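Support reply, case 0932

Customer input (verbatim):
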Amino acid sequence: MADKNMSVPPANINGISRPGHAKAVVKPKDMSGTLRRLWALTKGQRKGLGWILLLSALSSAAAIFSPYLTGRIVTMIVDGDAILFVLCALCGLYLSDWLIRFLQQFFMASLGQRVIGHIRMVLFHHMKTLPLAFFDRKQHGELMSRLTNDVDNISTTISNSLTLLLTYLFTIIGILIMMLCLSPLLTTVSLVGILLIFLLTKAVTKRTRKLFAAQQKALGTLNGQVEESISGLAVVKIFCREQQMEADFQERNDCLCETTIRALICSGYLMPLMNVINNLCYVALAVFSGILFINGNLRDIGLITSFLLYVRQFTRPFVEIANIYNNFQTAVAGAERVFEILDEPPEPADVPGALELEHPRGSIVMNQVQFGYTPEKKILDGISIQIPAGTHVAIVGPTGSGKTTIINLLTRFYDVSAGEILLDGHDLRDYKLKSLRNAFGVVLQDTALFAQSVADNIRYGHTDASDEQVRAAARMAGADGFIERLPNGYQTVLSQGGNELSQGERQLLTIARAVLANAPIVILDEATSSVDTVTEQKIKRAILKMCEGRTSFIIAHRLSTIRDSDQIILIEDGRIAEQGNHEELMALGGKYAKMYQTQSARS
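Our regenerated output:
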């Protein structure tokens, strides 16, 4: 009867680990501060919290009052009194407990999901305002984990752990009050056993926490090896490293198994040992109360019955709260990781009185530009360039010389550390950021296609473009032919990344997207580096059409694709090593000429 009164959930229900199933706990750095921020973040989303607190208090009523009513029934049977009324009251108490718990879950489900939806939305909204520098520092998988796993940990705590924690706290307080009211002497004796259980739980969980932390580390190592093996399986097979890969997996798998076995064994004896101590204390208290009854110090047999039931129920919530607290710590640690992102400064705000870039011509001047992704290492050192409107500029140089960095500065993904970049006579920072970026049409080496139709991918960023405008852009980019051969033509829905298309077809779609943007400044960053020679010629023709009458910047390793450029700038070690058109640089006989001759010889 006592176990039913408590309505204790089974092992691992709702993500809450039971005593015999401990798990690694991630501790927060500042629990109180994080909880205050979390409380402030949920402002306006806490409707129904008062009802949940009330229902949590009421849901502990069965555990608090059922032992007392059971003792009254025993007393009435001994005294020969009618027990029908008390039995009805006990049944009514259990029915009320079921209804209260149902309502509690109903309100908690609504409140929890509303709060989590709000937190997830706030986090996602803030992430889209962050500068590119933030995403360069963070792994994409880690950011996805914060948006999903960490928020889900908070969700589990709010939806499940919080209600159980409140219920158990009310239960402990209520049972302790009832025990003191029934017998202060027996209460004092029973607290000795409870103290022993508490000390035992603390000692064991301190040991198991380390073991399960080691288990999580071993699991992470194993998962990393699996991911690395699968992603690089082609290389593994080419170099015939299958056996070594399997041996590495076996070593890490054995380590994980051994660590997990030790952790489970250590945590597994906690509950049996607690039950032994709890039963011994229960027997000792039963004998002690029996002696008091025989000696006449206690005259109510029903009181003894009620008290023994209370003792049975009093220890269980402590163990449950310990497990819930572990989950609570993990959730708060997850909230800290969420707040770390929310504390990241967004992209710089527009300066007061920022200019609207309405009719850009595309004239660009760079004056003594210096920049480094970190203060201690300069990527660009004193770059000065003058680009008249409508000029076709090619930027070449070895890997890491700073070519892509120039593009990042032009689009204000980063701001210069020193010097200035002028567009049509004004510093880039004087313009509104949105209108500045609308002046650029960009085609990158890594194509970005979304799980939408081909037409929607082309009109991405210009959703008001008509179907005819989309088709015209595709024809200009040379993509219309293969699009028409797709199962549903322009309405064919691509997978994420457009993996069903070839690299060249994906690149032509991104060029069509840039054509539709009709921007006065075009940037092409290694747009032909990953395609064959035939596809390269198609893309080259599309690029020439797109760049007509526009200022264009082309970054390329294949020098044959940029020999017709008005200016070719060779960047080396963050400085301009050579500058001029193709004929001038070839006549100079410098590094560009050697690079071109080397590539031509290979061809």
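We compared this against your earlier run and they match. Two observations from our side: The radius of gyration is 35 Å. The mean pLDDT is 80. Please reopen the case if you see a mismatch on your end.
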